[in-house]
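WARN no homologs supplied; continuing
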Amino acid sequence: MLVIRQSDVEKLLSGKEREHIETVRATYELHEQGATTVPHSIFLRFPDQPANRIIGLPSYRGGDRPAAGMKWISSFPGNIKSGIARASAAMLLNSLRTGHPEALLEGSLISAARTAASAALAAEMLTRDRRPGGVSLIGCGVINLEILRYLKAAIDGLEEVTIYDSSTARAEEFARACEAILPEARISLAASIDEALAAQSLISFATSAGEPHTDLTAAAPGTVVLHISLRDIDPETLVQAHNIVDDADHVCRERTSLHLAERMTGGRAFIDASIGQLIAGTKTFTPSPKKVTIYSPFGLGVLDLALAVDVHESARALGLGVEITDFLS
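OK structure emitted
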């Protein structure tokens, strides 16, 4: 079994944003064709630590390069106050010939990359008729920083970045990181969520919110919102907007904003299409210029699998990682 450390994963992912976006696009298309198996994620929660959780995401990808594996990812928001990462993850790949484990990869970087690639792909598709000149990033953590990096690869002409976070100190530090990614862009800090919503026609939510806390009344009609953290926007607002998802069965769970909207309305008629349907052309979507369009991806484990397979193959080819020859006797 090959163990691939975070430093090697980082090296193998670096500079391949466009490739990852195309990998995610192809994987969504396979999912739409029914060539994947993606069971519901397993949420492990702790009665005495309600803010913390560990999630298991098993998956299978068919097609020309079949693969199977599982991501095991934790979210401990309190880590941020201690100066360590909120999320950590491991990715296990299994042989489809024997079922034996064949690779163990550090998974947080893969998870961030696939999340950012999915967001950038959706932004690219949903702003095709009206490219944004900037983006508002609400939540100043690893995920929104990666989303900015991938948006740079997907959309030309991003000249402004508006930032909002509940912590001013975190926002200021995040702004410096944004400057390194888009050195020519104008970076500004918003004093409120509403100011950030009004500033740009492309918005990304990547927060640790556990319950809806905002509407989108400050956003201009026609704005595209990447609702990556899934629990920021109140369900009444969702019902009045256009909604694109990655998989309705997955995203309408675990008290996401869409799950609450489904409970409120008694169904999923407020969901316009999945991104896989738009990629495959099995459904058309023409947004009203009077409405906001919200993309809410649950984050399918098969996306992690697809990127992990690429990293594993590259590591083997370059001789990276640590080979454990006696993991199984």
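The radius of gyration is 19 Å.
OK
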